Amino acid sequence: MKVKKIVSVLLCVAMITSMLAACGNNSSETKAKDTTAATDAKTETQAPKETEGATDAPAAATGETLVYWSMWDAGSPQAIAIQEIIDEYTAKTGVAVDVQWKGRDISKVIQAALDAKNDIDLFDEDFQRVATQYASSCVDLEEMAKAADYENHSVAALPTAIRGWAGSLKGIAYQPYTSGVFYNKAIFAEAGIESEPQTWAEFLDCCQKIKDAGYNPLALDDAYVLYNLGYHMARYIGQEKVSNLCKYGAYEDENGNLVGWKDSAEVLKSIQDMVDFVKAGYLEENAPDAFPASENTIGYDETAMVVNASWVPGEITNNTGCDLEWGMFNYPSVDGGADPNTIANVGAQAFAIPAYSDKAQQAFDLIMMITTGEGDQKVALATDSMPADPTNGEWPAMIAGCKDSFNALTNVYDWNCGLNDNADLQPIIKENILKVFEGSLDAQGFVDAIAAAAPAPTSPSADGGAAETTEETAETPAESETAAE
């Protein structure tokens, strides 16, 4: 392995030692080069920053090597930031790290690798899949987390969500996202909007003011039609009932009666709201457009708002070269609805440790360096994402407007708020809600079409099985990487 010139001779000696240890466990020189490629440029110009508890002199190599399978591509902003933290970890502990940058395809291979007990000491993936699909193959981190005071260095909703899915702490979340309505503050000011809308009625009033000011109120691309619909339906009846409609063709009301697609006044009203929204001219004129054409109109100062997640400001900025001041508010509540506007789709990535690893503590220590303190702050700023550690007060300017809305959340939704929970029905829902947003299908027509395709109504309480999800659900978090790049 070739090692480039490094400013500090002392650091050079430590890094050569640790990289030689790592090479001894690699199958080829190519793999080792992939591991360090993301940091070559930074290594030439600066030494790793000192982290809390680090000694002045690099630690002697221990001969140990952690194998980390990463969900990021080499050279991505996440990979660069994480590699810098790994270099600091190795300098501090003497433990080398063999990073294998698997990219998003890790979701297709990680379960088989865990079943085969491949040489892996830690990996990262979508936090919900870590807590559901992979949890039985991973170490319970409760005791190590307690010893590390992890609870005081994580946004509470993240470990709560993982425990809720897995039954215990099977992963450590990082690079979280939140979601809601993102907007151009300059257009709000020009339209005379002085406060962010909290209810659907206030939101409609906001849309009219934006339209009167000469702008499109809301962007919508085809990739996010289910996201918009799911949010709105969940506000009326809650995510669990949305899910039950998809899986069982019905949900149970407070008296235990089955309520199907055609029977629910709330579902019909939620679709009618969308029909009325389109008729009022509140969608961007070409919406629903092919992703990302509609959302890009925000960057071109043509449209004010979009319902999306906290990667969207970076995504639009990268696509259009805009320089906007972004605001954000939680998706509004609806009159008489089941859920308030303090519930949102929230997600993250998560690190986990295979149950068979004999270096669980060393892997956990590295995970803590990446997901808390200075490491978490480094990842957030490098990728325009939210800190996972609430003690890190510095947010990227692009998403600083999310902080108050994120901190106000009381619970979380899944992606598409329950609409993904029947793989056969989901594409039919998407096909018909596209027609609604195009203005070619009315509310009753939508309900009739979905009822005809949905399962015959059965009692959800009679089935304790897990939800069936679609491939779209599995691939959803990819947008966060796209935004950062």
Gist?
This protein is an alpha/beta fold and 485 residues long. The chain contains 22 helices and 13 strands.
Low-confidence stretches: 1-55, 465-485
- Number of H/I helices: 22
Overall 3D form: globular
The first-to-last residue Cα distance is 28 Å
What report would you give on this structure?
The structure is a single chain. The chain is of the alpha/beta class and 485 residues long. It has 22 helices and 13 strands. The protein has helices at 9-23, 29-37, 40-45, 77-93, 106-115, 127-132, 142-147, 157-166, 185-190, 200-212, 225-237, 239-248, 265-279, 293-299, 312-320, 360-371, 373-383, 403-407, 426-438, 443-453, 471-475, 478-484; strands spanning 65-70, 96-101, 122-126, 172-177, 179-184, 216-219, 250-252, 258-260, 303-309, 326-329, 343-345, 347-352, 411-413. Strands 2-1-3-12-4 form a five-stranded mixed β-sheet, sandwiched between helices. A four-stranded mixed β-sheet has the order 6-9-5-10. Strands 7-8 form a two-stranded antiparallel sheet. A hairpin with a 5-residue loop joins strand 7 and strand 8 (258-260). Helix 4 (77-93) packs antiparallel against helix 17 and helix 15 crosses helix 22 (478-484). The longest helix is centred in the first third of the chain and has 17 residues, at 77-93. The radius of gyration is 24 Å and the shape is globular. The model is unreliable at 1-55 and 465-485 (pLDDT under 50).
